Amino acid sequence: MIVVVGSPLVGSTEAGLRAAGTAAGIARAAVAAGAEVQIVGKVGEDPGGDAVLLDLAAAGVGHAAILRDPSRPTPAASPAHFVETALFDEPEGQATARGDDDSTTAEDGLSLEPADIELALRYLPDYRVLVVSEPLAEASLRVALAAARWNAAAFVVIVSPGSSQPLAGDDATVIEAPHDDPDDAFAGIIGAYAAAIDRGEEPTEAFATASLSLGWSAVAD
User: Fold this and answer.
1) Which residue from 134, 123, 120, 124 is spatially nearest to 25, judged by alpha carbons?
2) pLDDT tens digits, one per residue of 25-65
3) SS3 per residue for 5-37
4) Complete domains list, the chain, with CATH
């Protein structure tokens, strides 16, 4: 099983609201590659959060470890979705555009505290790969790293463009995210990579497998 640590966003399509963001994209791709996947994250107790959970379930992604936060709305996937619509009934005093809130942006989901991650991973003991799909505070990352080592799981960490993560350790796979991933191409290759590792492939072989599965033969070569 693969565990993806990261809070999903809510996006909008012609078909309606859906789960969006890097965590959701990685999870979907890993499921498509044949893996069992659970997401550790947080969404609001709102219609956006409801839509995220329903969409993940429809995609075959486990969401038993996604927490609901009644005090915060589920962040939208882009400024175009920073809501001024009745689809999201903001609590009184919070009826502002979501982009005005300093703690969440178009790219960021609701933050995960160390206790959130520790509690969630207690209920997901049998996993072979743990993917941290978003930048975490040091204390939260340490909890995820300790859990991966305890379970002898492969540890994959996605970092912001231009940054590194020495705390992850030499045995981790650290991958720099692009500035944007509008078509989930990056999330797709990470999900396929995690699925290949989950099947028992070595990291180099797994990356080649993932690249080829998405038609990136030049990368695989």
Assistant:
1) 134
2) 999 999 999 999 999 999 999 999 999 999 999 999 999 89
3) ECCCEEEEECCEEEEECHHHHHHHHHHHCCCCE
4) 2-220 (3.40.1190.20)
Burial of residue 16, with CB atoms counted within 10 A of its CB: 0-12 exposed, 13-18 middle, 19 or more buried: exposed
Note the residue count of the chain.
221
* Amino acid at position 88, single letter: F
Contacts with 83 (C-beta within 8 Å, 6 or more apart), sequence order: 73, 76, 97, 98
Neighbour-count burial of 191, counting CB atoms closer than 10 A to its CB (0-12 exposed, 13-18 middle, 19+ buried): buried
Q: Which of 71, 170, 82 is nearest to 111 (CA)?
A: 71
Residue ranges in the chain whose pLDDT is less than 70: 79-107, 165, 213-221
- Structure tokens belonging to residue 67: 């927490």
CB atoms within 10 A of CB 183: 9
Q: Which amino acid is at 128?
A: R
Other CB atoms within 10 A of residue 94 CB = 13
